[in-house]
Amino acid sequence: MSKPSMIRRAAAVAAGTTVAVASSAVLAGPAGAAVPDGWAPEYHMNAVHLLAFILFIPVGIALVISLLVLLPGVLRGEGLLPKAPTGEQPPAPRH
User: Where does the chain cross the membrane (predicted)?
Assistant: First the structure.
């Protein structure tokens, strides 16, 4: 196939796809399903609950994970910060 023929074919496929997607979006109606009887009534979330879900819960989980990672070293007496070098290692080579 020549290059102009490939371009025309790609344009035709793109146009057909666009028409198919647009027509299905236009012709689709709203969903007709009702809420099942056993479900809880509709609940609107206020700002405090939203902050709890978005901010407080992830920060709390991060703090718990950090505590679980640091706790064994602290219990062994290693502390939270790395120790200063003791001078046992040879000095780094100079270039």
Answer: 49-71
Task: Please state, in angstroms and rounded to a whole number, the distance separating the CA atoms of residues 6 and 12.
Answer: 10
Give CA–CA dist 88/83, Å, rounded.
13
What is the C-alpha to C-alpha distance for residues 60 and 67, in angstroms, rounded to an integer? 11
Model's pTM, two decimal places? 0.42
As a whole-number percent, the residues of the chain with pLDDT over 70 amount to 91
Higher pLDDT, 11 or 87: 11
Q: Please list, in sequence order, all residues whose beta carbon lies within 8 angstroms of the beta carbon of residue 73, skipping any fewer than 6 positions away.
A: 79, 80
- Say if residues 80 and 74 touch (Cβ distance below 8 Å): yes
